[in-house]
From TrEMBL:
It comes from Elysia crispata (lettuce slug). Residues 240-494 form the Radical SAM core domain. GO terms for molecular function: 4 iron, 4 sulfur cluster binding; metal ion binding; tRNA-2-methylthio-N(6)-dimethylallyladenosine(37) synthase activity. The keyword Ribosomal protein does not apply. Its cofactor is [4Fe-4S] cluster. Residues 496-572 form the TRAM domain. PROSITE patterns: MTTASE_N, MTTASE_RADICAL, RADICAL_SAM, TRAM. Signal peptide: none annotated. The keyword Translocase does not apply. This is CDK5RAP1-like protein. It comes from the Eukaryota. Belongs to the methylthiotransferase family. MiaB subfamily. Residues 96-215 form the MTTase N-terminal domain.
Amino acid sequence: MATGLGRSQRFLSCMVTFQKCNCGVLSKFPQLSTSTYLHKARSSSERIKKSISQTGPSLTDFLRKSQPSQPALQGVDNVMGSGSYLGVHLFPGNNRSVYIETYGCQMNVNDTEIVRSILKQSGFVNSSSIEKADVVLAMTCAIREGAEDKIWRRLHYFKALKKRRGKRHSLKIGLLGCMAERLKHKIIDQEQMVDVVCGPDAYKDLPRLLVVTSSSNQAAVNVQLSLEETYADVVPVRLNSDSPSAFVSVMRGCDNMCTYCIVPFTRGRERSRPLTSIVNEINILSEQGCKEVTLLGQNVNSYRDLSSEEHTSSPTQLSAGFKTVYKPKTGGKRFAELLEAVALVNPEMRIRFTSPHPKDFPDEVLDTINAHPNICKHIHLPAQSGNSGVLDAMGRGYTREAYLELVEHVRKAIPDVALSSDFIAGFCGESEEAHKDTLSLMDIVKYNFAFCFPYSMRQKTRAYHRLEDNIPKEVKMKRHEELHATFRKHAEVRHMSQVGERHLILVEGESKRSSLDWAGRNDANTKVVFANEPLSYGSENGKEKVLAKPGDYVVVQLTSATSLGFKGKAIYRSTLQEFEEQRKKEDRNVCASL
Ligand code: 5AD
Ligand code: SF4
């Protein structure tokens, strides 16, 4: 695997951390990785400041690294190789039970699956009861203040639970993921809320952190970011193993540095998992009966596997009219190759991906999506704003015009493609006019779905340092509501126009409202609910009728629609390939009759 970090650099980074870390406790555990700190719960604020500065990239780190004259990795003292954690057998869980709560995006769900796997290997067991668990962990999100507020409330509850139990049944509390990375030691030293703080690249160290905090009764922290950790060697323990759908992480981190976004600081630099390890995992999922895989990454279509020598060094193709904030990258196996390889694993397995950046949709990617019936014709194309000035302030690397041209191009390349997007309301300096531009962009594109968020200022980001969060809260909320209402208006019209069509639905499970109904999704990822009645296979006229089950494909005639989904009538059970054949036949018939 490409490490991206030379041995001497890696050694240096560990040494820097070691020298600066002055906890004293380390000497008690000479076998510990030098990258981790053990903190006495009541350490001095002086020391807190020192250690915080050692353990997270600042905006300057990114800016420094983006300058072409410097070696890409210079000046980052918080980055380490993934090989620096110690063997799991040294830190046995001894069947201690762990309850994990997950907040945030699908990437966090997948990270929880990775953590479960790592803990299982070390002899911890999973618990579904917070009351009975020995350890409670929160997999956290830091993207907006609201997300963090929710987690804070939960941490207070965990702390109260711990106090209530006392020595009778001691409880260890751990903070994992983005909020852990953002707050680092602060959460221990200022709030004394948790015993373990573990950032997104340090999960392999979690067994040790848990063992250490139990034996020393002191807090343990590892928030080192890595240039190479992709957890390619960890087989996730799926949270819902009965589900026909699974998430597979293909890359981590983000180099885009959108000015509003904390992700590059909490998840670190972009790195991709070797293509072969992804295909191997998906092969296993396919053998286990999984019918839908979502490829995950903060910037999934920036995928670039540099692990093999075979790849070319041809320059990276971007979408027309788009640019990057970083020095152009070359080489590696790109997203189109990954999509192709993954699609070929099992033609009956649906492939989705999230979350992409619009800059990385060269024709190769669009052609690959088009060429494989099992790659869903749904593209998430986060616009964030419809105004070129705001887009510039956000550092998105495109204008309104370039984005709209891309939409047109995608729609030409993939007829019937479903589009979704993310939007931020009330970004720094957004005028009423600029907001109207976003509404008008929505009117033009008419998305199938959109996530809309009021802007939330995040420390460390470029917007925090350089721009003013000057849109009053009420205005942000009003604009947020307008964005939401506009997306729903268009989605409803779009969905209503599809009533009467037959869609192929992958059954996920019982509908939330009634155990007599199945819920599943169509190719566009829109929810469809229908009555669970016996169905024949291949056509509605078949004799033998059986009930469909989760993981089956069912042809459903859509009978009603809202902005968020459909109701329908199940017609027959089918396969993805047969449905595609049928669709092509019907298209040929229509052409012939013209
Ligand atoms: N405030 C509001 N929304 C944000 N997002 C990212 N950072 C912020 C922020 N500071 C949104 C973007 C992104 C999505 C995952 O979250 O729309 O695409
Ligand atoms: Fe954040 Fe922009 Fe990276 Fe998405 S592309 S994770 S919004 S910095």
